[in-house]
Design a protein that fits this description.
By secondary structure, the protein is an alpha+beta fold. The chain has eight helices and 16 strands. Strand 14 and strand 15 form a beta hairpin.
Length: about 290
């Protein structure tokens, strides 16, 4: 985080720890508005809440009207679904639940993995309207946290806050701060860094197979074509202008080479594989330790 006398607003939301750092403390009304935005997002998109729109869709098919951010989110997921050949999909929720990453966080598998249904057979996602033709467990975890980071940044900007760092448990968005050095966490040892990166007025998001691990080699990054956890890449980092893009692409790197994703998206990236090798873009603003 920035040095000096910056002030931190720390809170819990959507199942993770948040820290918003600013040169001056945030006023009580802005803090309340930020917390309300987090609550609204959770009530719309969480598959862990019995009262959310996503949970309603899992119970009963039909048309559901989501807030404005659904338009951007749907377009991004649709593109990554196509580029990954169906491997990256928001329809992986049923397999996550079957494998134990369910609403109760049981972490006890209740059956074998389920391939995700083909998008066009069960889902119409047009701008902010999502129509399910059958009960479907939508999971936007690959991009949702980054999307909420951007939504909170918009709240700060609307209140005239132009210098801040939002840290959503490692998913970062910095604005008006100057260059920051950020350590890249070792995929097998959270106390060790494998490198550093320079972050300035951009977002840096990571995805790692060791972040949510349970059972016999199970983790939260599933291949939609098989419903099984990915075994090749173990950690990825993506840097982009928005957090939703960096977050989504950090997951997409488990399925699609970064060089191919760069043909569609402006970002820089690093992927570490299970054999210890790494691949990264030429413009990745970082240094890997040897």
């Amino acid at each position: 985080m920035p040095g000096g006398n910056w002030q931190d607003f720390v809170f819990d939301g959507i199942g993770t720890r948040w820290e918003i750092s600013t040169p001056l403390p945030l006023g009580p009304f802005l803090r309340a508005r930020l917390l309300a935005r987090v609550e609204k997002f959770d009530a719309d998109w969480s598959r862990f809440r019995s009262d959310s729109l996503v949970t309603a869709m899992a119970r009963e098919p039909g048309r559901y009207d989501f807030p404005a951010e659904a338009d951007q989110l749907g377009e991004l997921y649709r593109t990554l679904y196509r580029l990954s050949g169906g491997a990256m999909t928001p329809l992986i929720g049923a397999s996550l639940e079957r494998l134990g990453y369910d609403a109760d966080y049981s972490l006890r598998p209740a059956g074998t993995a389920l391939p995700a249904p083909a998008w066009d057979t069960v889902l119409d996602w047009t701008e902010t309207a999502i129509t399910a033709h059958a009960p479907v467990v939508l999971d936007i975890g690959a991009a949702g946290k980054g999307l909420l980071v951007d939504l909170l940044a918009a709240e700060l900007a609307a209140d005239g806050v132009d210098s801040y760092v939002i840290d959503a448990s490692g998913d970062l968005l910095a604005h008006g701060v100057g260059a920051m050095q950020v350590g890249l966490e070792h995929p097998y040892n959270p106390e060790q860094a494998i490198g550093i990166v320079q972050l300035e007025s951009r977002s840096l998001c990571a995805s790692a197979a060791n972040r949510r691990v349970w059972g016999d080699g199970l983790h939260h990054v599933l291949d939609g074509m098989t419903g099984q956890p990915v075994r090749t890449a173990v950690a990825t980092w993506a840097m982009a202008d928005t957090a939703v893009l960096a977050d989504a692409l950090a997951t997409a790197l488990f399925f699609v080479p970064g060089s191919e994703l760069q043909e569609t998206f402006p970002f820089s990236w690093l992927t570490v594989f299970s054999d210890g090798s790494a691949a990264y873009s030429e413009e990745f603003e970082g240094t890997l330790f040897t």
